[in-house]
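User: For a reading group we're discussing how well predicted structures match intuition. Take HTH asnC-type domain-containing protein. Before you show the prediction, I'll give you the sequence so everyone sees exactly what went in.
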Amino acid sequence: MDSFQTKLTHLLRENSRASISDLAQELGSSRKKVKETIDRLVDRKIIKRFTVELSEETEFTPQPFCAVFNIRLVTPNCKQLFADIQKHENILGAWSVSSSETDMLVLVEAKAVEDIEKVRNSIARHPLIQTMYTNTILTTWRDPRSTI
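Assistant: Thanks. Here is the predicted 3D structure of HTH asnC-type domain-containing protein, as structure tokens, for the group to look at:
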């Protein structure tokens, strides 16, 4: 690599998101020369990729696990069941529904599948519950709670 390429790669290591204009100004060169040099370095595989490096304080937060419990009650008393289960902090929502097989839907979220299983096991033992099955959410297409 010549000295211009070395200076350019040094600047890109410091800030891989720097604009062509900023790099050209820093190097005292034209935007065209900077762009062509970057393209050549990429073509020659000297530059493999442009990355973002996170600070050490930034920690990766995995997406939480979500599930919906479909509950059929012995007697239709969703209000009583909710009063008894609302203590679980993992419950995001609960709905009475009109269905021949389900009386209530309960949405839960947790950092680990094991936590969802604990909540499920606790709720499933309730005397009002006749049957309960779980749907795990695989992909979220829209969530009004999302900030992204």
